[in-house]
Amino acid sequence: MGVDQKRHGYKLTKYECWVLILIVVLLLTPVVSSASETGSEIQQGVEYVKLKLYAKAADTFRSILSRNPTDINVLFQLANVYKLQDELKLAVETAEDIFRIASSQNISTDKRLFGFTYLLLSEIYCKQSQLDIAEGHAIEAVERCSTVADTHYRLGYIYTHQAKFDKALGAFQRTLELKPNFAEVYEWLGLIALMQHKPEEAVSHYKTAIQHKPYIQSAYYNLAKAYRLLGDMESAAEQLKLFRQMKSYYDMTYAIEGTLAEDPTNVALWLKLAEIHVAHKHISAAISTYQALLRLNPTSVTGYDKLGRLYMDINLPQRAIPLFNKVLELNPNAVEAHVRLGWIYSVQKVYDKAELHLQKAIQKMPKLTLAYHGLAEIYAQQGQIERAIEVYQHILKIEPNDKDAWDGMNKLERLKK
Q1: 234-270: per-residue pLDDT in tens?
Q2: Distances (CA, A) of 186 to 160, 195, 246
Q3: How far apart are CA 230 and CA 224, in angstroms?
Q4: CA separation (Å) from 23 to 17, 20, 48?
Q5: CB half-sphere exposure, 347, CA atoms < 13 A
Q6: pLDDT at position 33 over 80
Q7: 232: helix, strand or coil
Q8: Most buried of 8, 189, 235, 343, CB within 10 angstroms?
Q9: What is the rounded CA–CA span in Å between residue 145 and residue 376?
Q10: With helix as H, strand as E and coil as C, how does 252-320 read?
Q11: Do the Cβ atoms of 145 and 111 come closer than 8 Å?
Q12: Buried b (16+ CB within 10 A) or exposed e, 124-135
């Protein structure tokens, strides 16, 4: 069984890891600049990268370099962008400029920057299937960034493709020591187990990969393969079913992300993408999508509202508060935002703020029984039984058949007696 047999269903996973490594690098790379304006520009460029607006990021970094062509930190950022744009020749040339400038000008630079530059080059040569060159760069990256899991992972990836399995296992072991939840490592360990005719071990590795990252479609496909080798056709069929579901999910999101790269201010598409993530219970991706929407479209009332509701759904109401406040800032007539804030503050026992928001909701919609129910509850929680009963009586004038109001009022009447 060759390494190429794992390629089916794995393309997107490798793409994801590529981006993951880039973002880690961008966050860790020191920004060295005496001008605060330049520092701000760099951060803007990094923000564009996070949003996958690579053309804008490249323009930003090139603009800085037009004023200071020897800024090796900015050169590194630009090389990363070229890599993501698949401008691999430009990425290599830009990365090599870093070494050339540092050498010719005797610049003392952080070993980490060199290490990440070697890692970048290693990734590029891996993509070009020049594994011997990639291996040399990965070894250099490990030497300079021995405590960065991604460098060891890259070396393990290369060794696996070279069928140097003992070395690969050693590199992956070191990766997991630094980052135990590195899901892609477990996928490669599963592949090695399959090639060594150890399907039971492969099953264990693929299950761990799925546990750490349930949205890697290839893990389900290869887990099905391992079950087939064990003769467990029922489990294999179940994993293939999950694989098809994950593939459909990623096909949808990949298509939308491609369109958003061309039209990043399309609010409707951002919302659709987030809703797809929510439907597949990929909550972290949904949150990131809403956040990206709001960075690009900071006046999107719907974006703030949807993200606030999501935080409430996952029991993080404190994070929802500023979002609903932003909704009200942009749209003072957003009654539901007042009701949701009333509920959050009621749960937190901040009764004055809860009452304030519920009263504002009632001012705008005098027949909104939901707000009155909230008021009755906070009065009852504070021992203001008479006021709570009065609110329930008012609800019944609006909606005589409101069973919850009857139940609440009767309960309080008994309590009063």
Answers
A1: 999 999 999 999 999 999 999 999 899 888 889 999 9
A2: 13, 14, 18
A3: 10
A4: 10, 5, 11
A5: 11
A6: no
A7: coil
A8: 189
A9: 60
A10: HHHHHHHHHHHCCCCHHHHHHHHHHHHHCCCHHHHHHHHHHHHHHCCCCHHHHHHHHHHHHHCCCHHHH
A11: yes
A12: bbbeeeebeebb
For 278: left if phi > 0, alpha if psi spans -120 to 50, otherwise beta; the answer is: alpha
Q: Are 310 and 324 contacting, i.e. CB atoms less than 8 angstroms apart?
A: no
Q: Tell me the H-state helices in 29-148.
A: 36-50, 54-67, 72-84, 88-104, 111-127, 131-144
Q: Find the radius of gyration of the CA atoms of the chain.
A: 28
- Are 14 and 56 a contacting pair, CB within 8 Å? no
pLDDT in tens, 173-213: 999 999 999 999 999 999 999 999 999 999 999 999 999 99
- Which residue type is seen at 20? L
The tokens describing 168, both together, are 């690969």
Count of residues making up the chain: 417
Tell whether the model's pLDDT for residue 306 goes beyond 60. yes
DSSP code for 198: -
pLDDT of residue 38: 77
Report how far residue 217's alpha carbon sits from residue 12's, in angstroms, rounded to the nearest whole number. Answer: 8
Tokens for 350, please give them.
């901040």
- Give, in order, the Cα–Cα distances in Å from 5 to each of 8, 221, 351: 7, 12, 62
Instruction: State the chain's mean pLDDT as an integer.
Output: 90
Residue 11 corresponds to which amino acid? Answer: K
